[in-house]
Amino acid sequence: MKPSRKSPLALAAAVAGSIALVATGCAADASKDAQPASADNPVTLTVTTFGTQGLDPLYEKYQKENPGITIEATNIDTGGNALTDWKTKQAAGAGLPDVQAVEEGWLGQVMSVADSFTDLREFGANEVAGDWVDWKVKQATDPEGRVIGYGTDIGPMGICFNAKLFKDAGMPSEREEVAELLGGDDATWEDFFKAGNEYVKKTDKAFYDQSGFVWNSMVNQLDEGYYKADGSLNIEGNAELRERWDLLSDAASKGLSANQTQWDWGKGQAFVDGSFAVMPCPGWMLGTVKGQVEGAGGDSSAGWDFADVFPGGAANWGGSFLTVPTTSEHPAEAAKLAQYLTSASSQATSFEEAGTFPSNLEAQKSEAVTGTNEMSEFFNNAPVGEILGNRANGVQAQYKGPQDSVIQEQVFGPAIKAIDAGSDSETAWNKALSTLQELEIK
Amino acid sequence: MPLMSTTTHDAPEQDRDASAPSPQPQRWIKGNNAPAGAKPAETRDERKTRRRHLRGRWDFKYSPYLYISPFFILFGLVGLFPLIYTFVVSINDWDLLGGAGAWIGLENYKAELTSPLFWNSLFNTFSIFLLSAIPQLVIATFIAAMLDQNIRAKTFWRMSVLVPYVVTPVAVTLIFSSAFDEQYGVLNNLLAAVNIDPIAWKTEVFPSHMAIATMVNWRWTGYNALILLAAMQAVPRELHESAAIDGAGVIRRFFSITLPSIRPTMIFVIITATIGGLQIFTEPKLFNPSSSVPGGPDRQYQTTVLYLWDLAFNRGDFGRASAVAWILFLIIIVIGVINFLISGSIASSADKKGAGSTGRTRAARRAAARAEAKAAKPANGTQSGSAANE
User: Fold this and answer.
1) Are B230 and B162 in contact (CB under 8 A)?
2) CA distance to partner chain B, nearest, from residue A181 (Å)
3) What are the counts of helices (DSSP H) followed by strands (DSSP E) for chain A?
4) Does domain A156-313+400-438 have CATH number 3.90.190.20?
5) Yes or no: domain A8-154+317-392 corresponds to CATH 3.40.50.12780
6) Best of B292, B293, B300 to disrupt the A interface by mutation (most A CBs within 10 Å)?
7) Which ipTM did the prediction report?
8) Which of A406, A412, A436 best probes binding to B when mutated, by most B CB atoms within 10 angstroms?
9) Is pLDDT above 50 for B19?
């Protein structure tokens, strides 16, 4: 064998090639934006959001109004995947965007690393704090009083109901009548289940889709949920929680729950085949209901409507914040963008775009939110914006502990499944407690 | 051409340079005239040649390492480093978000080995693995044997069995997940049509394992069939022919000739199936994406890798997740060693039995001997004649 002679150039290329394989990372410009962005000082801001937050048209507008700013937006399909994405990058300490959207459900985890988010008070958060519903700002404030996020949407809860099914059952089916039937202004869960029992008796069909959403609402509206405000676990021996658990299992054992798979509903079939008649609906769920019905080939004639009532007092489920991780190279520009994206006019635009109900007080009252739109047309011309505004009154910010979402999903998720499948209250509750032990949540 | 060996590799350089107009170039010998300027009058040409020689020697000596280096560099970066780093994480109390905590030795391993959830995941993994690997290999062997026959449109059939492998597992899982849906799935609808009670595919342990094994089989059977087919085609045809002459039927020939001959390939397929089977993740993860707990509400089909993922990214306990990763790594190594020993003993027992080194079984050797004997005889029959002509 004759060794081939290689030109030095080829050798150099080979070396360079293998180095290129090894080399990772790219040079980041280290300017910690001393002066604001302009055409002469271009700045690129990265934004990561999830689900449908209705921000796309706002990026365009902001870039036009602020020469020199380029926005690179990434949208992740679901909140769950976005959480994994954020956690991975947070754990690695690299790759976080300039503006990161975080969901209410992650707050417990976010707050455990609160100091890795920029304190927005440095960039004028105090001056605009009054623009939002007060509990939203409270949620985004860490124990030291630092404000780490601007509120986008909130999830005040009302009741979605199927007017057609109510009518077929010989029960009141007008929006106001249903609200009255479920207990009116001071509705309780007892009222809700009473109406459910009546419906089940008359139709021999289930009342709500599955117990998970009902349970989430029941827990979310308490002053203290799975954790006490001081951060200690609050499940075993929590009489308030247990009382609600017993109510719920009693209802499930009487056939009120359709035992549907949540977030699946037979690819939407259950929304059009009369499997169930009501569902607890935060604002953003309206879009989900519409999507499910349409996915199963139905439209507004499927009979869904939205009632201005919620059992057990005001409740909120979900909603997001825009934060600025401290890894951002341009915290001032990023904070400015986050503030813009959550301003009154922006939130009104997002509502029109995606149906996310504003946390900004001015936006809540705007014509875009209270007027008719695609969503209200789908829900039998219900004034959804107005109803959601009413439902947002009296919501309390509940402390979320670091393992809140794990408790909700892994401890109570299976227990809820068990009561929907016919297990009795005591057994299912003990099952939840033993899972809590197994997972070693303290 | 002078005889070449690795130690005289600068000889050809010299040959080639002989055509150059310069005087016979001096060979550079280590320790002799290495430093530049040691010889007073070195011409430009000489220097050039010497450098070229130096480069040639380096080229010869080091470039092979350079060519294979990308693999080792990449392996070091994405294989070895994570392996070691995972071990470091596993002996610390490490929160995903909070980062490294205290050094706690083997506490994480102890906690996992006493955790019922870990053992549950291991049980699920092995159950799904056995439910998938065994039928998969049996069916793959059968398909390969069919494709090995003289059939029409060979390429078409061979390509067809590979199609499921080309489809991404995510897409496969979405389709199967919908088919196995308990209330709306095709399968339960079909069962209902013939008055059989619906099966709880997503909530009961055994049915869910069956469903996931089905997805794995769907994806991998064709792939394994093609590998086995390649091995079958390498089995000498005369073995089959002479066995056929001796009156061995199709089935007898399959068990006595085909199967023993493809044993090394079979072992390869079994080992890769084992490693893949123990690391199964996508199918159980997406089987019921709306389940609040990954792997079923009661962890009915939570495999070990899925458990590990849940531990790291949902529960945030990076230390314990790393311990699980290492335990799984060790289990796979143990199973790999067992596989290796079994395959080694099979190979050596075959060697002992046969004088030949081909590792054929007695039946195969006998058939081969007859084939030779027949071929040696003058053609006296139409059947043996055709064998002799080959």
Assistant:
1) no
2) 31
3) 22, 8
4) no
5) no
6) B292
7) 0.81
8) A406
9) no
